[in-house]
Amino acid sequence: MNRIEKINEFLKQQPKDNFLRHALSLEYLKVGEELKARDLFVAILTESPDYIGSYYHLAKCLEKLGDKKEAIIWYEKGMAAAKLAKDDHAYRELQGAYEDLVY
Questions:
Q1: Residue range 80-97, pLDDT digits in tens
Q2: What's domain 3-102's superfamily in CATH?
Q3: Can you give the pTM of this predicted structure?
Q4: Quick one: DSSP state of residue 15?
Q5: How far is CA 23 from CA 1, 58, 68, 78, 83, in A?
Q6: Quick one: how far is CA 39 from the chain centroid?
């Protein structure tokens, strides 16, 4: 059983577990399934906007898909969420990626 199958088995028991859904999204990225990863990251952040770690990966995924405008939006949302959570490390990481994209 590969990692995607294993994570999906766990998700059958805990379908809204953000850690598992985030891990599954990352696995999708590894195998080139960017659209599946994007959709799952969006679902996580729509339901749990305080799940800070997914913002960076979603925005990077959008960049890879060529959707710069949408990536910028998600970087901005992530910076706002990180600031609200007082997560300075995540804020700086998001800000750096945002600035690399915008400037």
A1: 999 999 999 999 999 999
A2: Tetratricopeptide repeat domain (1.25.40.10)
A3: 0.95
A4: T
A5: 16, 12, 24, 18, 24
A6: 9
